[in-house]
Amino acid sequence: MTERQPLAVTTTGGWARPGWWDLLEEAEHAGRFGPEDERELYDDYCRLAISDQESCGLDVVTDGEHRRRGWIESMTAALPGLKQRPGPRRLGALGMDMLDVWEVTQPLDGLEWIWDFEGEYRFLREHTSRRPRVGIPGPYGMTTELDFAAVYPNRKACAEAFVPAVRSHIQNLLEAGCDYIQIEEPITPGVAEDDRTPGAMVELINKVIDGFAGCTFTVHICFGSFRRLPYAKRTYRWLFPRLLDANVHGFSLEFGAREMAEIDLVGQWDRGRILSAGLIDIKTHYAETPADIIERVRVCEKYRQLDELEISTDCGLRRVPRNLAIRKMTAAAAAAREVRGE
Ligand SMILES: [Zn+2]
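Above are the sequence and the zinc ion SMILES. Below is the predicted complex in structure-token form.
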């Protein structure tokens, strides 16, 4: 496994999109791109995201997750046997009820493939000299937009159906040389009751990574971001200490938007467990300064050593204006350099 950089700076989720993305998306929807044009377009989006992260001074980079076009939407849409139902509300203030719902009409247990995570990793590794990391949705994450009631008795049963496919992607990523994977398990009851328990989350996380070695695994747990609005109750207290039974190397959690609330929970963790600390608030137009971030790092340092700490974002930057994302992450890298005494 790669030596861990103390206070490595990274992001979680997707990178910020350039403004002109919208123009190209219009052209794409109008059918003006051939398959080769599409491939080139998304390669270029990812090259730009990687280059942005490197220019900001990030230590651990992703491909920007631009090929996914949303956190989970593309993957959900590609699942077999789903029936799309438009969100019940189209007008007025932004709300979760504006999202399309995907009804599960057949068991998903035979599923072997979710997304080309391996292709994303290979492209990333070829285009960066920094440490590459790939994020993949966890079993609960995969249920976010599903109305599973016709096939599964509860969310856990539906989530469990995704375990073999997630495992097979991890196996392929490891074979391709990937040594850092973040499993994304936001508390996101997009549709239907969210009856998950910390014990059920632990059970499925452990099933997903059982037997895999030579790779750092972290789990990202956030409160969702639908057009930068959270949609779950913003507390981690109910998850700990039970979640520490997950055999992962660390957790990526939101603290920036919550002004470091509940950071004391990290005090329960055993030595060596990584906190990929969300110190950058993606839900504000305010650009954190290096001093702001150093102040937050000092709070984390009460509970974790620098080699157990990463500076990250609360959640993905996909909906953050690119110039703002660049200012935030440049400040984060400057803060890390100062704390490291470089
Ligand atoms: Zn998130």
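The CA atoms of residues 170 and 307 lie 25 Å apart.
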